[in-house]
Amino acid sequence: MDKISKDVIEFWNNAIKLEEDDKKEIENSGDKDYTKLAPSLKLYEAVKELGKCEKVLDYGCGSGWSSIIALKEGAKEVDAVDMGDNIIDAINFYAKYYGVASSLNAKKIDSDYLKSVKDATYDGIIINNVLDVIPLDITLDILNEVSRVAKKGARIIIGLNFYMPQEVAKTRGLELVDGRMLFVDGVLRLYSMSDSEWTELLTKYFEIERLDHFAWEGESRETRRLFVLKKTVSSTK
Ligand SMILES: C[S@@+](CC[C@H](N)C(=O)[O-])C[C@H]1O[C@@H](n2cnc3c(N)ncnc32)[C@H](O)[C@@H]1O
User: Fold this and answer.
1) Which of 73, 126, 133, 225 is 20 to 30 A from 41, comparing alpha carbons?
2) What does the pLDDT look like over 122-178, one tens digit per residue?
3) Which fold has domain 3-230?
């Protein structure tokens, strides 16, 4: 794995880590309203649709909020995969807390993992806020494999950060490496592509059902992107 990717994984593995005190605090709160786990209502509603699926892949699951929602909304089984130990520990904790552990398979993976998954395995896939924080060559590998492991008719949800063009970055005193990559303290935090660039790329693999925009709580403008996609042809590999 290249250094940029290693640093990205290490960053998220530390950011998502739940200490024992954090776990106790969550347990003591007794709050089981899973709908609040989604960073926005539009994302919640998109993920809720995955509740109709038999088998869902949550790729780069992080804390696994989307896996929990899909299961709570009726999905039969979810494979939640990511690359750090703390991340897998966190999702296992949340799955138990929200009472969905028996239908959730949390798995620590390496970069070749998707190659080991059979063609047409999933009828639902979510990749939220992953493809926009990693280098483009890795995104292309992931999309190739995701397209192969999606069943014909599968629903694929891709959530992305906002687009930051180089001119806008400059006005904020930021430099995008190669006009695309924003590094913060040496860690790649944004791979910046416009709506039309993402549309052109995703169209190579899927039919685009819709592109919507959303905001996180506290943000005044809906600049984050939500693609709802459909796999329309059978796997070719
Ligand atoms: C911004 S977090 C998003 C986590 C989660 N999907 C969410 O919506 O909260 C990015 C996640 O992508 C994971 N990740 C980064 N590169 C990856 C790769 N090549 N394959 C799988 N996961 C990756 C990181 O470990 C991290 O958990």
Assistant:
1) 133
2) 999 999 999 999 999 999 999 999 999 999 999 999 999 999 999 999 999 999 999
3) Rossmann fold (3.40.50)
Counting ligand 1 atoms within 8 A of each CB, the residue from 9, 13, 67 with the most, and so the one to mutate, is 9
Say if residue 202's pLDDT is above 80: yes
The domain locations on the chain are 3-230
Query: Residue 56 and residue 67: Cα distance in Å, rounded?
Result: 8
Residue owning the nearest CA to atom 8 of ligand 1: 128
What is the DSSP-derived secondary structure letter of residue 179? Answer: T
Q: Cα(29) to centroid of ligand 1, in Å?
A: 27
- From the CA of 13, give the closest atom in ligand 1: 25
pLDDT given for residue 237 in this prediction: 46
Contact 169, 175 (CB under 8 A): yes
Q: Which atom of ligand 1 is nearest to the CA of 138?
A: 19
In terms of Cα–Cα distance, which of 160, 152, 154, 150 is closest to 201?
160
